[in-house]
Amino acid sequence: MIELRHFRYFLAVAEQLHFGRAAEQLHMAQPPLSTQIRQLEEMLGAPLFIRSKRKVELTEAGRVFREEAETVLEAVARATHRARQASQGVLGRLRLGFASSAPFGIFPTLLRRYRQAYPNVVLELFELGSAEQLLALQERRLDLGFVRLPASATNIRVETIDREAIIIALPENHPKADHPELHLEDFKNDPFIIFPRHEGPGLYDRLINLCGQAGFNPRIVQEVGQMHAIVGLVGAGLGVSLVPENMQTVHARGVRYRYLQNQPYIDMALAYRDELLTPLQQAFVSISKGSGVQENFSPLQ
Amino acid sequence: MIELRHFRYFLAVAEQLHFGRAAEQLHMAQPPLSTQIRQLEEMLGAPLFIRSKRKVELTEAGRVFREEAETVLEAVARATHRARQASQGVLGRLRLGFASSAPFGIFPTLLRRYRQAYPNVVLELFELGSAEQLLALQERRLDLGFVRLPASATNIRVETIDREAIIIALPENHPKADHPELHLEDFKNDPFIIFPRHEGPGLYDRLINLCGQAGFNPRIVQEVGQMHAIVGLVGAGLGVSLVPENMQTVHARGVRYRYLQNQPYIDMALAYRDELLTPLQQAFVSISKGSGVQENFSPLQ
DNA sequence: CTCTATCATACGTCGGGAGTATTATAACAA
DNA sequence: TTGTTATAATACTCCCGACGTATGATAGAG
Q: Same domain for A96 and A52?
């Protein structure tokens, strides 16, 4: 059976055109080298060298084989290199799930940062509800998930990586627009605009819950899918809306964003199987936790 | 040291995800397979499989390595295949020398035929005088040469492959143009057009020699490099010229081609080192000699 | 013709790859 | 839980073959 040894030996001889020197270069004696080359020729069924007792030269088959042999050894080197890289988490594929509200938070920042650090990792992104993500993680169809809390499942670890304040978006001519201190219950009679529950049950339930804690059931007058559309409708005066604070970056005409007293918030968490992390996961997790991400968090409490 | 064995074993396990079945497929026992895979992982410095006693799965590094391993084995297969091909003369490089008058004879036909039969051989063509070709053959800078006879050198075999009649090209209003039988001496007083000697000393000397045998020294009025140009000048009435019969295919205005009595001729020969032929040479030589080439020869005597 | 360079051959040694037997452990059934 | 089965790892032995040493064969140089 042909082995890499044969390729290595052949290349040395082809380079030196001298069995003795080639053997020296290979740190071995000359006879076994001759034997191996002969063996190689036999296996190929083709002579590679013309040995004329006094000098060695390549046959045409030898010249052809030389080129191919080089590509073989290069392929081997690349294989080992890339396997090592992959084991260090700088090469491979990472399947990420994310809740539909993630793109407005820290998620895109993390993605950018990760891509910069590990440009050779192919990221596969899946927009999934939190429950779906947990299931996919359990079934190993996903490597990491960005879920809204609360969320939990067996064998799944959930780690908060971001806490966003929930703020209220209201028309700028709203009577409370300039009121110094705002409480959620101040809006119990206002019409609310919100996205359909199935588009982000985590955030949706949290918002409804907050209203419940404030002692009222929000009067929902519109359900709109796009977050951008929601603030547009707020600007048009159709109602108020609770949004993550990152939505402030969306400057819509006629919209005021105001923080609320007692700071309601919503958590974003990273979820993954509760076992030894792969290097790829490990790298993403540490990027998510380290290197100044925390500093970008909104003020807690 | 990593060997092809490791790649073969790895791929079997990666395919089966089962050491027992993989071992079976490889016609070996399971324990040494485990050993070899472990060895491979150690050499790579990267785990390739996650073995959980009950099932085996690829790590990310394993997935990456799998792709690379396949290309390695493909490269090996290609290397052996191409080396075999080369040893059979269907792959490689052939350096051909040819006399400058060769392109008007059988040479292009042979080239076409050879290329058709061996499309993967790269032909390198060198226009060289016969003497230069013989030297280049001795120094192995050439594999085969197309030379004009007579030509000889030590260690060089010369084999006639084509005999072309030498015919006379004369202006169609020449007094002898329609004469039934023509002899070379009939033109001893005509002005002759010929190419410069350095462009084809073999043919040149042969032509001068023929005139000498016919009892005269040709009066050369023009030396023109291109064969096409020569027949053009003949058509313009500037003189007559001796040309290989294949020049008849060049139909120039006002030119008549006539065979001569006692058929002077010029030989084209294939030259090569007088030693064991490489498969590439062998193939070209047998194409040159066989398969109906002889039938295209001009009538001898 | 002798000397030298160089590749091939002969042969013994030994490492390591492969086999057999067994163990360890996880999944599953009762 | 316990027993059974499936599966990979471990322990150990064996033996092939790759390697080294010594030598031979031969061609080219002087």
A: no
Q: How far is CA B194 from the centre of its chain?
A: 29
Closest CB to B76: pick one of A2, A59, A63.
A2
CA atom of A82 to C1′ atom of D7, Å: 30
Tell me which residue range forms the domain holding B205: 164-265
Q: What is the DSSP code (8-state) at residue B242?
A: E
User: Is pLDDT at A148 greater than 90 in this prediction?
Assistant: no
CB contact under 8 A, A87 and B45: yes
CA of A122 to C1' of C24 (A): 38
Kindly give, in sequence order, each residue whose CB lies less than 8 Å from that of residue B115, ignoring residues fewer than 6 positions away.
B121, B123
A76 touches chain B (CB under 8 A): yes
B278 lies within 8 A of chain A by CB: yes
Q: Which residues of A touch B85 (CB under 8 A)?
A: 64
Chain B environment of A65 (Cβ under 8 Å)? 79, 82-83, 86
Evaluate if the CB of B5 falls below 7 Å from strand D.
no
Q: Within 13 A of B11's CA, how many CA atoms are on the CB side?
A: 15
Who contacts B170 (Cβ-Cβ below 8 Å, separation ≥6)?
B176, B177, B187, B190, B234, B240, B255, B256, B258
Q: Cβ distance A169 to A255 under 8 Å?
A: yes
Does residue B301 sit within a domain? no
For A166, the enclosing helix (H) or strand (E) is: strand A156-171
Asked if A201 reaches chain B (Cβ–Cβ under 8 Å), the answer is no
CATH code of the domain covering residue B83: 1.10.10.10
Cβ(A163)–Cβ(A297) below 8 Å: yes
Name residues 254-273 of chain A within 8 A of B (Cβ): none
- Residue B260 within any structural domain of the chain: yes
The two tokens of residue B140 are 């192995």
The tens digit of pLDDT for each residue in B249-276 reads 878 888 999 999 888 888 889 999 887 7
In whole angstroms, give the CA distance from residue A193 to residue A171: 12
Residue B186: inside a domain: yes
pLDDT in tens, A155-173: 888 999 988 899 999 998 8
